[in-house]
Specification:
By secondary structure, the protein is of the alpha+beta class. It contains 1 helix and 2 strands; from the N terminus they run E-E-H.
Length: 67
Amino acid sequence: MATFPSHNFVIVPYGKREDLKLFSADPKQPLCIFDAIEEGLVGLDSLGAKEKDLYFAQLTNLNFAKR
């Protein structure tokens, strides 16, 4: 997505305002990742087989990108 330095993004899980997540666009850190499963907001067991496949494919892609 296109943005600019210091642009802020807020993620608020439905019905859980106390779990607010804030992200700020930083040119020194161009990749910002939000993983609802890792954050404990969504359970892996709540995903269907296809969603799990897509989730693990995304994790593989992100690990590759970090290298």
